[in-house]
Amino acid sequence: MSKPRRAIIAEENSTVPLDIRVWYEATTLRDAGWDVVTVCPVGSYGLLGGAASNTKGAPEILEGVGIYRFPLNQAERGAFSYLGEYATAFVSIARVCWRIWRKGRFDIIQFCNPPDIFFPIALFFRALGARVIFDHHDLFPELVAGRFPGFAGRILYALARASEYLTFRAANVVISTNESYRQIAVKRGRVPRDRTVIVRNGPKIGQFVPVEADPAIRRGFPFLVCYAGVMGPEDGIPELVAAIRYIIQEEGRRDILFVLLGDGAARSQALATVKAWNLEAFVDMPGMIRDKAVVRRYLSTADVLLSPEPLTPLNNRSTFVKVGEYMAMGKPVVAFDLAETRITAEGAAVYVEPGDVRGFGRAVLMLLDDPERRKRMGEIGRQRVLGQLGWEHQEQSLLQAYELAWAGGRRKRA
């Protein structure tokens, strides 16, 4: 019996199985016969009863996937804080990958961004004979520009563009989450188009299914409106809270409960704003719920779901996992009008002029007062997930990317 091909998937800014995209990739490869090991930070997984760091011993085995976890203090603010985080991650990932290589080598190593700093490791293992895949999750230069304005930000942006280019060039194959990201790879990274493969973000059809509504979640309110996702600087949480204030205080609606599920750097300020604006009776912010069954119950009970990401160069080109999950639940979405959000949701969302928080609030109210339209939009979204966007439709593209990398980035001629 031939030895199975071996793959390493390394990431810095999240951890498995909480990073659902990376976990889907790892389990898809496992099911296709690959021996798969992931390298990731402990992150919040350790707080949830998961394993601690294990960079020196045997990997944790979860559902047939090996996992090495390394300790990492997440940066909170300031360039030096991020440099410290990235340096720690770089050293940890390099050490673990080298240890794995010495024990039994591997055929393909996949790096997931952000950040775009792992090209030296990629080039090192390419020189030893491994193939390299770059899984392009985020636009790292745009992330840097959004976090660091001014002269220092421009310098950091230039460095990020250089590291992005080198990361693209170090890969045999680039996985893009959508066509906008593929264009970045082709134009900014000078990657030949035939060495790029689109693997979209999408929920698993067989797992992310609507469940029976739970009336207790409504807490006696006639309507429930939900947000479920990360609450970072780019996610539009201040705009969302402003829209809620408009609905409650200017439109005088007291019949709606807003539940904001998630955590991140923007959550503490949002909590303070909700309190300062006297919205606490109408806004519930229970934090990040890791149990997907509970999340599905919230989303299935909701009448309208929210995607308030503001217009930025990053957001306009990005595909948000939450939008696909909302659609899988068969629920209508209210979103600011961003190019890739419109491509994903099509007729399943109402699109609002970016920055118009009152318009966002009016769109929510319009849907709440039109149950037939909510039903039609929800059916459109659910059918798009079933027919095109679900992870089951992305699996063959992922396996295609791996076969292409196995061939050294050269497509087989017909």
Question: Which helices and strands appear, and what pairs or packs with what?
Answer:
Layout: E1 6-11, H1 20-31, E2 35-41, E3 60-62, E4 65-70, H2 79-104, E5 108-112, H3 119-128, E6 131-136, H4 140-147, H5 150-170, E7 173-176, H6 179-187, E8 196-198, E9 223-228, H7 237-250, E10 256-261, H8 267-276, E11 283-287, H9 292-301, E12 304-307, H10 313-317, H11 321-328, E13 333-336, H12 339-345, E14 349-352, H13 357-368, H14 371-389, H15 395-406
Parallel strand pairs: 1-2, 1-5, 2-4, 5-6, 6-7, 7-8, 9-10, 9-12, 10-11, 12-13, 13-14
Antiparallel strand pairs: 3-4
Helix pairs in contact: 3-5, 4-5, 7-8, 7-13, 11-14
Number of helices: 15
Quickly give the structural class: alpha/beta
Spell out the CATH superfamily of the largest domain. Glycogen Phosphorylase B
- Going by CATH, the architecture of the largest domain would be 3-Layer(aba) Sandwich
Radius of gyration: 22 Å
**Amount of helix:** 40-55%
Arithmetic mean of pLDDT:
93
Strand order within the widest beta sheet: 3-4-2-1-5-6-7-8
